[in-house]
């Protein structure tokens, strides 16, 4: 029996290492392709070890000073939006767990309803622009469709109901503590896994968002990094598809279109890859515990 268990552990470790290689290998090839010369990619294809290092793609991306401003905009939006979203989500979720809350079922129904139906893009755009006047403001990158998620409210409410001892909350109420005190002093300190989970999910959503910039931003000073990279990719694809190279400048013709596509992907994903290991432990625990009641 011991030998059988040891053999299974060896097999499991080898299998997991193989899966890890399958996950890491495409990312490594992507990074190597972004620092490979265009001619090598066209001649030899994508390789894990570039034959000639070429940072032209990154020079093209970072050559325009606006990318640093877009990075700052996205970092600011991600930080402010994530913190605000976590506060709203946890407060709404805790409210739905308070016993005796009038209309709890109706509120839960309306929250779930938003997961299935929405007003549509045009009514949403008209509401935010004509009523709230957020066009070309930093709030246009934070509020529309991003500030609160019904899915996150559901898993957070389930976490509160399943993992916060009701006896502790009841004793606090008997001692005269109000709901705000219970929430900030007792519930939040016991909810680090789910807070890390929804926080990372929101941070990832804000970091990858480019639609709000497309819909609500025309001021180049407020364009986020993903929207800027998307515009660069569109321009590069236009150059690659141009049939009449003679009508395009020499510099444009020599732009490494394949390398730039890879470099854009690297620039967009590296910050989140660096951040993920710090959230992984709490993220997985919070997601699994919050998703299953029992």
List keywords for this structure.
single chain; 294 residues; mainly alpha; MetI-like fold; 2 domains; flat
Provide a concise account of the structure shown.
This protein is an all-alpha fold and 294 residues long.
Give the topology, please.
Layout: H1 2-34, H2 38-44, H3 56-62, H4 66-95, H5 104-116, H6 121-131, H7 150-163, H8 166-174, H9 179-187, H10 192-208, H11 211-216, H12 225-241, H13 250-253, H14 257-291
Helix pairs in contact: 1-14, 3-14, 4-7, 4-10, 4-12, 5-7, 7-14, 8-9, 10-14, 12-14
What does this structure look like?
The chain has 294 residues and is an all-alpha fold. It has two domains: 2-44; 65-291, MetI-like (MetI-like fold, Orthogonal Bundle), CATH 1.10.3720.10. Helix content is 72%, strand content 0%. It is built from 14 helices and no strands. The protein is flat.
């Amino acid at each position: 029996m011991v030998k059988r268990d040891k053999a299974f552990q060896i097999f499991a470790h080898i299998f997991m290492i193989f899966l890890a290689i399958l996950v890491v290998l495409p990312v490594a090839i992507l990074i190597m392709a972004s620092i490979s010369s265009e001619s090598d990619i066209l001649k030899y294809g994508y390789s894990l070890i570039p034959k000639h290092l070429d940072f032209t793609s990154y020079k093209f991306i970072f050559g325009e000073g606006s990318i640093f401003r877009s990075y700052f905009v996205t970092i600011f939006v991600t930080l402010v939006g994530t913190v605000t979203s976590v506060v709203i989500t946890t407060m709404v979720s805790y409210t739905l767990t308070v016993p005796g809350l009038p209309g709890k079922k109706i509120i839960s129904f309306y929250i779930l309803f938003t997961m299935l139906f929405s007003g549509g893009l045009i009514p949403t755009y008209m509401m935010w622009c004509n009523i709230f006047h957020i066009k070309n403001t930093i709030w246009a990158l934070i509020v529309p469709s991003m500030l609160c998620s019904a899915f996150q409210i559901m898993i957070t409410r389930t976490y509160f109901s399943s993992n916060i001892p009701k006896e502790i909350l009841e004793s606090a109420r008997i001692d005269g503590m109000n709901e705000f005190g219970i929430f900030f002093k007792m519930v939040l300190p016991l909810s680090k896994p789910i807070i890390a989970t929804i926080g990372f999910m929101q941070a990832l959503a804000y970091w990858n968002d480019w639609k709000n910039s497309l819909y609500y931003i025309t001021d180049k000073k407020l364009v986020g990094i993903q929207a800027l990279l998307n515009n660069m990719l569109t321009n590069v694809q236009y150059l690659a598809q141009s049939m009449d190279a003679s009508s395009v400048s020499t510099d444009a013709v020599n732009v490494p279109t394949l390398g730039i596509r890879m470099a854009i992907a690297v620039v967009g994903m590296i910050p989140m890859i660096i951040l993920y290991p710090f959230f992984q432990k709490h993220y997985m625990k919070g997601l699994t515990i919050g998703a299953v009641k029992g």
